[in-house]
Amino acid sequence: YPSEFLMQKITEDNQIPVHLHVSVSLQYVAGLKGNALVEFFHGNIAEVENEELRHLMWSSVLFYKAPNAEVMACVLLSTKAVYFLLDDSFIHADECQSDFWNKEDSDCENSSFHLSCCFVLKLNDLQSVNVGLFDQYFRITGHSADHIVTCLTRDSYNTHTFIQQLMAVLSLLARTPSPEPVDKDFYSEFGSKNTGKMENYELIHSSRVKFIYPNEEEIGDLAFLVAEKMDGLTNLQSLNILLYVLAFQVNHVEGSAQSTSSLQPKTLILTSSDLFLFDEDYISYPLPEFAKEPPKRDKYQLADGRRIRDLDRVLMGYQTYPQALTFVFDDVQNQDLMQNLTLDHFGE
Asked: Any idea where the Nischarin C-terminal PH domain is (predicted)?
């Protein structure tokens, strides 16, 4: 340890996504390569001497206790824990959650130090991992509200790779084996007799950590919700969700010096007739076992919706991934004017 392959892999993965801005401290981490990166991990982050760094990933993260603040993090997976290396600016910005971080005022405010905060989730405390629709994000759940984190990878490959690495590391944990399962029939295994609803697909790892994947009903529920937002104009049977992707909406902010653009996280859903932008709650659903009441907001809140037939053109930027797309719509005030004329003219 570490092997040549691991060193190369971690060095390749240590790249901040170009569209997201991070503090100087995290830029320093992103500049480390190979051996320097492993030494940095052991000297500054690792909690025990014999743990090994197995995987590194840059991702936006959300905390259950601070659901409105999406923050960039360097996620480090070792044989003992998952470490989230965060911007120090996040802790300052989120004053209402200061008790969550137990941060003491430091004397380094005006010095040349660049601080980072490291949030640690020990593998022994891990209870379940919820994978989001189309592997766009995943939520790690520990034993309390302080230990729930969602990683918004916005990339199925990154999600898949992390889950694979996590399963491999969990296999190394020595835990008491689960009792032998009682043979169950299909309905008691997958269905709840009280509600008649199918449960999400669960995979229980040998370490007793649950990996929960969405089932087909979740897409059905989403299609129903989308149809509701379309004022029932569409037959639900013919409504197909063609694309579900976590994206950013670009809002241009006109500043005095130069106009900057802020990125608003949105869920983009494309159907055969409409394009929707939703504000989605990625952290509160499904409800954790200790939750006393439902979340304050719905999982999906409609932010914008346009008909595809009103789409005039799509402009594509020339930069590499992530690609910027601009959708230009014809906003006709009375959209159904032609339709009504046709009915009057040809109808009985």
From this structure: 241-347
| 180 within a domain of the structure (yes/no) | no
Question: What are the CA-CA distances from residue 297 to residues 96, 280, 281, 283 (Å)?
Answer: 19, 9, 8, 11
Q: What is the mean pLDDT of residues 216-223?
A: 84
- Within 10 angstroms of residue 3's Cβ, the number of other Cβ atoms is 8
According to the model, what pLDDT value does residue 251 have? 83
Q: What is the pTM of this model?
A: 0.82
DSSP classification of residue 44:
I
Average pLDDT over residues 167-188: 68
Phi/psi at 153 (5° precision): -70, -30
Domains in the chain, number: 2
Task: For residue 22, give Cα distances in angstroms to 49, 107, 164, 254.
Answer: 29, 22, 27, 22
Specify the DSSP class assigned to residue 191: B
Residue 335 scores a pLDDT above 80:
no
Characterize the bridge pairing of strands 128-131 and 210-213: parallel
Domain containing residue 137: CATH number? 2.30.29.30
Q: How confident is the model at residue 195 (pLDDT cuts 50, 70, 90)?
A: very low
Q: Is residue 191 part of a domain?
A: no
- Taking the C-alpha atoms of residue 67 and residue 62, their distance in angstroms, rounded to an integer, is 6
DSSP string, 119-178: EEEEGGG--EEEEPGGGS-EEEE-SSGGGEEEEE---HHHHHHHHHHHHHHHTTS--PPP
